[in-house]
Write a structure and sequence with these properties.
mainly alpha, 82% helix, 120 residues
Length: 120
C-alpha cells in the first residue's frame, strides 16, 4: 500500500474510534449504562476495530516512512493506549465521561501535532 493509503486509513480509523468513544461518553454522561445501551456490543466491536486499524495503518505508514521508532511514535503509542482504555474509563463514571469529552479531543490534537511536526 502507498503511504497516502495508509494515512487515509489511519485518519478514518481515528475518526471511527473517536466517534464511538464520544458517543459512549455522551450516553454515560446522560445517565446511561451498559444495560441501557442497546448498541453496547456494536460500540465495543467498532471501538476494537478502530483501534486495530489505527495500529495497523500507523505502523504501515511508519514502515513506508522508514523512520524507525523516534520519540514522537512512542508518544502516539501512549495516546493510542489511552484511547484503548477510554471506553472502560467512560463506563466507570459519569463525571469521568464528561471530563473525557473534553480531554479526548485534546489528545487527538496532540497526536495530530506529533504526526505533523515530529518534534522528537
Amino acid at each position: 500500500m502507498s503511504l497516502m493509503a495508509y494515512k487515509v486509513l489511519h485518519i478514518f480509523s481515528v475518526i471511527l474510534t473517536f466517534t464511538v468513544v464520544g458517543g459512549l461518553a455522551l450516553h454515560v454522561a446522560n445517565g446511561g449504562n451498559k444495560e441501557s445501551n442497546r448498541q453496547s456490543k456494536l460500540t465495543g466491536i467498532l471501538h476494537g476495530v478502530g483501534l486495530l486499524l489505527i495500529l495497523v495503518s500507523g505502523f504501515g505508514a511508519l514502515a513506508r516512512l522508514g523512520a524507525g521508532f523516534p520519540g514522537w511514535v512512542w508518544a502516539k503509542i501512549a495516546i493510542w493506549l489511552t484511547l484503548g482504555a477510554a471506553a472502560a474509563l467512560v463506563r466507570s463514571s459519569p463525571a469521568l465521561s464528561r471530563a473525557l469529552l473534553l480531554l479526548l479531543p485534546l489528545l487527538g490534537g496532540v497526536a495530530a501535532w506529533l504526526a505533523f511536526y515530529k518534534p522528537f
